[in-house]
Amino acid sequence: MVLTKEYRICMPLTVEEYQIGQLYMIARHSLEKSDSGQGVEVVENSECESEEHGKGQFTEKRVHLSNRLPYWIQAVCPRVFYITEKAWNYYPFTITEYTCSFIPKFSISIQTRYENNNGCTENCLKLSSEKLAERTVDHVDIAFEEIDQKHYKQEEDPKYFKSKVTGRGPLIEGWREHESPIMCSYKLVSASFEVWGLQTRVEDFIHRCIREILLVGHRQAFTWMDEWYNMTMEDVREYEKSKQTETNEKVLQSTNNDAGNSLEQQQAEQTPSVSSID
Predict the structure, then answer these.
(1) Phi and psi at residue 248, to the nearest 5°
(2) Residue 94's Cα: distance from chain center in Å?
(3) Distance between CA 31 and CA 81 in Å, rounded?
(4) Per-residue pLDDT tens digits for 112-169
(5) Which of 256, 223, 227, 205 is nearest to 79 (CA)?
(6) How far apart are CA 37 and CA 50, in angstroms?
(7) Are 35 and 254 in contact (CB under 8 A)?
(8) Total-model pTM
(9) Coil, strand or helix: which one is 220?
């Protein structure tokens, strides 16, 4: 059975504010994490439309991450490895899908809806009774959950951050019960890796990675508030476009270098050495 979890992440923002903050955070975070061939390459970013959800934004990205996988997964992955992300953003509802051509039985599906409350809506995503029975709910606290030390920065810690622009923060124990404004991201995540002997281990690993990304990303969206708060949607789209160009250049340059090095290594392995000729 596919492992399904519903993550609920509260933020001391309104849904309207979060739309700007999320776009800013994703663009900046993608650029900062794109190095040595690892990162996010934007393939397409265009308008889309749905009969059910109306007008939105479609993006397709390649997430290069082979060196960031555990060794037991790297062992079966090619050196130049990426996952395809396709997202349909009909804010305040979004759909995101992840696939990998190298591993056809791998997929991740995420449905997200944003509401101005503290995560109290029991069935925000309008799931069927069967889906409700399958899911587990996981509340993510951006202020009082520990993160990996490699991600920690005091200036990005909501327990210490105070916005100079809005006066919000720092967040104190129990903040989700009394903070105003407050909104919640409801994310239904289904992870599937249908390979016998590895399914449970890999699906658990996928959810741990996703949860870590959600925790770190939402902390950053809040603590970077003073940089994006006064942006308009036009401002943040322009910022997003410029950062995507920089990110693509970094990722593609490093990826091409890695591919060349990998080819040279393969040729060297196939060429007899002096000792073997002797």
Answers:
(1) -60, -40
(2) 13
(3) 18
(4) 999 999 999 999 999 999 999 999 999 999 999 999 999 999 999 999 999 999 999 9
(5) 256
(6) 35
(7) yes
(8) 0.84
(9) helix
